[in-house]
């Protein structure tokens, strides 16, 4: 997903998606350790999505604090 798609969501939706992505990253790490991971690029995509969500959450928190 792109940052603009994340910005359209509420903070609660972002937290839920962040939790789901962290679970996926955990599972991907286990698949890699056991040699079952087929799509290695998915790990990088998940990490970047986590970073995007955290950035948007911080921006929304800063906006709320400024108001």
Stated plainly, the CATH topology is called Helix Hairpins
Instruction: Tell me the count of domains.
Output: 1
The largest sheet, given as strand count, sense and whether it forms a barrel, is:
none
Counting helices, strands and paired strands, the structural category is: mainly alpha
Cα gyration radius (Å): 14 Å
Q: What's the rounded overall pLDDT mean?
A: 96
Order of helices and strands: HHH
Q: Compute the number of strand runs.
A: 0
Question: What key attributes describe this structure?
Answer:
67 residues; mainly alpha; Helix Hairpins; 3 helices
Summarize the structure.
One of its GO terms (molecular function) is structural constituent of ribosome. With 67 residues, the protein is an all-alpha fold.
What can you see in these coordinates?
The protein is mostly helical and 67 residues long. The protein has one domain (3-66): Helix Hairpins (Orthogonal Bundle). It has helices at 3-7, 11-34, 41-66. Helix 2 packs antiparallel against helix 3. The chain is elongated, with a radius of gyration of 14 Å.
């Amino acid at each position: 997903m792109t940052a603009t798609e994340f910005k359209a969501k509420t903070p609660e939706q972002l937290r839920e998606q962040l939790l789901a992505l962290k679970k996926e990253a955990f599972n991907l790490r286990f698949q890699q350790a056991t040699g079952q991971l087929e799509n290695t690029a998915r790990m990088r995509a998940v990490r970047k999505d986590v970073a995007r969500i955290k950035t948007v959450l911080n921006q929304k928190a800063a906006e709320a604090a400024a108001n």
